[in-house]
Every structure is written in C-alpha cells, then in structure tokens.
Amino acid sequence: MEAALASALTKEVVLKLVTLLSEKHKLSKGLKDDIRFIQTELAMISIARDNHLVDPSASRPQIMSMEEMRDLAHDIEDCLDRFLPCVACEGESSVLHRVKKAVTSTRSRFAAEIRKLKKRLKDAQERRVNYDVNGCRSSAGAASPATADTAENVPVGIDKPKQELVELLLDSEPGKLSVISIVGFGGSGKTTLARAVYDCSTWAAASEHKDAGGLLTAILRQLHADDVPQVQNSINDFLQTTECLIVIDDINKQHWDAIKSIFHRDTKSRIVVTTALQSVANACSSGDGFIYKMSILDAELSKVLLMKKVFFRGCSPELERGSTAIVEKCDGLPLALVSVAKFLLGETELTGSHCAQVCRSLGHHMEKEADFRKLQQVLVNSYSSLSGYPLRTSLLYTSVFPIGRPIRRSTLIRRWLAEGYVRCQYKRSDTSRNLLTGISFG
Hints:
Layout: H1 2-20, H2 29-51, H3 60-83, H4 93-130, H5 159-171, E1 178-183, H6 190-197, E2 202-205, H7 212-224, H8 231-241, E3 245-249, H9 253-259, E4 270-275, H10 278-284, E5 290-293, H11 299-309, H12 317-330, H13 334-345, H14 352-360, H15 362-368, H16 373-384, H17 389-397, H18 409-419, E6 422-424, H19 432-438, E7 439-441
Parallel strand pairs: 1-4, 1-5, 2-3, 3-4
Antiparallel strand pairs: 6-7
Helix pairs in contact: 1-2, 1-3, 1-17, 2-4, 3-4, 5-6, 7-8, 11-12, 11-13, 12-14
C-alpha cells in the first residue's frame, strides 16, 4: 500500500501545481518553467506508481525510492500550501486580497524554494536511473491473480453457495446462452466457488491476458487443443454444436466488451465469470444472465476455518478468546482468515493474547510478512478499481483517524471539503446527511 499512498499524494500535488499555473497567478517565466517541470515529472512518477500497484514484489531500492518521492511530494505540497489560497476560501474576496499581498511579498522566497525542490527531484530521478530502480524486483514471486482468491484446498462454507450456483446453471433457459456472474469483494472466495462447479470444461483467467485476443485464444485452445486460426468464428461455431461450461475468472469491462459478441446467443453452453465490480457483473449478465453475490463467512464458519488451519490440536479458553478476536478482525473474509492462520502457524508462541496482538498490528504484518502478500495484493487491486483519483484519495484520508474507532460523518465531510478532495452543492448550514448525498468526488 506504500505505492498507493505515494501515488495518491503525488496526484494531489500535481493538481495544486495545475492550479498554481492558472492565469490568475502572475509568475515569472523562469518560475513557471520550474513548476511545469515539477508538474510533468510528478505526473509521470504517479503514472509509473499506478502501473506498479499490481506488482506486490517491490524490492528494497523501490521501497526507498517510493519513500523519497513521498517525502518530496510532502515538501512540495507544504511549499504550495504556503503560497496558494485555501480552496475553501476562494470565494471570499477579502481573504484573496490578503493572500495576493502576501504572495507579492514572498514571491522571491517561493521561487527559491521551487528551485531547490526542482533540484531534489532531478537528483531523485538520477538515483532511480543510476541504480536501475524500475528494473529491480524482489526475489519473492508475486502471487498469481488466478489463485489469489483461492483461500484453501478444502473450502469451508462452500456447500450452500455451490448448490445455489449449480441450480442457477441448471435453471437457465435451454438453448439460450446464459452468463452467470459471481461478484464479491476480493478474497471472498469467488474463484474457489467457480472451481467447485468447474468440471472438465474451459477455464481462463482474464487477468493473465492484456487483450481480448489472448483471452479468446486461451479459451479456444482448451476447447479444441488444436491450432487456433479464426478465433472468433471457431468459438462461435463450437458453441453452436457443443454443450460446455466456460469459466472466465477476474474479468473486467474491457475484456467483456471485446468478447461478448463472439458468444452465440443460441447455444446450450453456459458461461460463468467472476468479478469484484458490480458494474461488470451487470454488463456480463444483462439479458438472460444471473448475478450471484458472494456472502462472507459467519462467525461460526470463520471459527471452523481457523480450527482447521491453526487450532487443529484443540483450543483452550484463552485461545478461544484469541480466535474470537481474529474472527472479528477478519469479518468473515476467507482470504484474510487464511492469511492470518498461515502467519500464526509460523509463530513460536501461540496464545490468546498473542492472537489479539497480531490483530491489533495486522497492518504492520501485512507490509512485512510474505504470508499476507495475497491479501495485500487483493486490497491494492480493490483500491486500483475505484473510479478516479478523488475517490481514492478520500478513502486514503480515513487512515488519519484512529484504528477501530467510529468516525463522525460530519467531521469526515468537513475535512474532505477543507482539503479540496470533494465539492458540495449545499450550504454549510445543511445537515451532514444532506452533505453526504450532495458531495462530488472530483
């Protein structure tokens, strides 16, 4: 998540630089050039950060580089905050008048600070090149996206969902192509459920293919196991004459838009897709399809899973209290439960108090321990799927509040507004509930 935080902060600074370069600020040409240079460099760094969010195997040089860029972005933001007027006060002419006077008197000092920040940014970029930071990779391999959702070899609580999914497959209208979308949060067991009904059919992981052509080729190779000329026509002809089940794991909107026309509507075959996005599920299952929403494990099944993975030798009253803390922390998410269980198996001391301590410092362990790599990647993927930078930043901002404490709606919204993350169409005197429905992210 360090890359996600650095990327969000960098984008915030870039937006402030764009504001600074607007016509209302009279800046010298040299100062504008320096600011444009910083803006361009930070924008490129932010794009590179986003591209590397899907790679959890950051090396030590990459981590150090991210920390350096994060600190530099903080310093640039502090410098801009001393120069730019407060976003929330832009409509107040008297405040703007005072700000303009302050800007005029401190412009030379501001220009000097910008020159220093530009040099620091150049030096940081040179270090990235000299030490080949982008080419570094950790020796620990990244988890395969296709298996990141598979919580365990013998799933717990899978019988009822499997039965419901099979019934959906059997109840589909004969002779019509039916797409069943399994939708749920990452790590909730979508892939595990799909594999439970997958039997001698076609399985393709969409996340392993950058374009639709590669995905279609992978599907056809499993259908024919021959050469794959004319992929689209081959799949279409095959589905018209053969009854089969095709499972496409972790599909996105771009993949589906590109391949949906390939599948002929008049067929006995069935397609099952898994996705973490409701909008993608709606698109895939429009018409004659169905949407199956994954449910989290209840407290009883969560404890059964822990018993199988960790406390298989028995559970004392103290460990029972520790397992309760784990269940409450993981909130029924199978992958989270399994990740914590794997970590606890490697601990020399397994007591109830230690289990509770692990729960309290789970964020720290996720950053450091390999047992949490799959879970960390699921969280990063979920973060990356959020629509737009303002929504991502607004989510990250909640981390400034204490862990495990309730957050007052009005306090959070006012802070969002003060930081400029959201805009509101209502007056300040309106209720916080109205504010929540009236804010705009972006």
